[in-house]
């Protein structure tokens, strides 16, 4: 599968981060829009499979098809640029500033949200025969998901807020691992296999992904879910975005940069072949 060594893909991560920060506004928005739309469709696909089969594992096994598609087409998710863009600043690439990173994050958020919302409207039309009937079984399931992961968290107080934050941290630990894993191979099959594994883990474990939620929760509101836009942003989207940032930058970008790009000197070996103290 043409495996790329860690030191090599660590350098690729920094180059990718630099490229994303310097990308034009038009290209950033288009790529983010398409990423949000495709990932949202994959979420609808996974929920449909779960409802039709009664087995969440089957839906989780097939959900990564959307992530693989958008990555191979060169589109951008907020969760990915959370991890990659800051590395270009940390590595002191010329002309890369935190202001540029924040600009990139803002544009990608807007593009992802617009793309996911487009798919949410399309799927709401499909689930309700153009809003002329009650939601079908899949639409009803999406409404319930939105309720449990907004007002459900709110009802638990600080414990609920801590839970949604930790789920978001663990989500982007896995999702950004998928982004980096795609750099471990130079073949399409190798990239797909490497991406598939961590994305499967995040989805089946029910972790919180800010872009997937940009589809699930607006869809839930349109399909009769018993929660509001304020509850969606206050009890889910905002803490999830923060958790995704912490998870991706800390457990993936920061760790790989620290040990594979900025490698510490090796320990000296003593005269008899033992490590020197």
Automatic annotation (TrEMBL):
Keywords from the named record? Membrane, Transmembrane, Transmembrane helix
**What residues form the membrane-spanning segments?**
32-51, 57-84, 105-131, 151-175, 196-218, 238-258
What residue stretch is flagged as signal peptide?
none
Q: Please verify whether the record's keywords include Transmembrane.
A: yes
Please state where this protein is localized: Membrane
Main localization is membrane
Membrane protein topology class: Multi-pass membrane protein
UniProt lists the family membership as follows: Belongs to the FNT transporter (TC 1.A.16) family.
Q: What is this protein called?
A: Formate/nitrite transporter family protein
**Which species is the source of this protein?**
Rhodobacter flavimaris
């Amino acid at each position: 599968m043409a495996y790329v060594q860690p030191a090599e893909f660590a350098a690729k991560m920094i180059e990718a981060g630099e490229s994303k920060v310097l990308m034009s506004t038009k290209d950033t928005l288009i790529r983010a829009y398409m990423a949000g739309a495709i990932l949202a469709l994959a979420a609808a696909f996974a929920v449909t499979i779960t409802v039709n089969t009664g087995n969440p594992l089957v839906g989780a096994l097939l959900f990564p098809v959307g992530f693989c598609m958008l990555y191979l087409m060169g589109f951008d998710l907020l969760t990915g640029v959370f991890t990659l863009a800051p590395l270009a600043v940390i590595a002191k690439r010329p002309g890369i500033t935190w202001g540029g990173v924040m600009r990139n994050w803002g544009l990608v958020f807007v593009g992802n949200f617009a793309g996911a919302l487009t798919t949410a409207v399309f799927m709401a039309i499909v689930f309700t025969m153009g809003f002329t009937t009650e939601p079908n079984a899949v639409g009803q399931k999406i409404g319930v998901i939105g309720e449990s992961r907004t007002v459900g968290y709110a009802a638990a107080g600080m414990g609920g807020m801590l839970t949604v934050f930790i789920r978001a941290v663990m989500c982007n630990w896995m999702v950004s691992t998928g982004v980096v894993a795609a750099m471990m191979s130079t073949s399409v099959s190798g990239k797909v296999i490497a991406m598939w594994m961590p994305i499967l883990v995040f989805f089946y474990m029910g972790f919180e992904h800010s872009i997937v939620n940009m589809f699930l929760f607006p869809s839930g509101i349109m399909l009769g879910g018993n929660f509001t836009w304020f509850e969606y942003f206050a009890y889910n989207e905002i803490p999830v975005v923060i958790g995704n940032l912490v998870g991706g930058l800390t457990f993936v970008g920061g760790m790989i940069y620290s040990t594979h790009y900025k490698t510490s000197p090796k320990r000296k070996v003593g005269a008899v072949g033992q490590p020197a103290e």
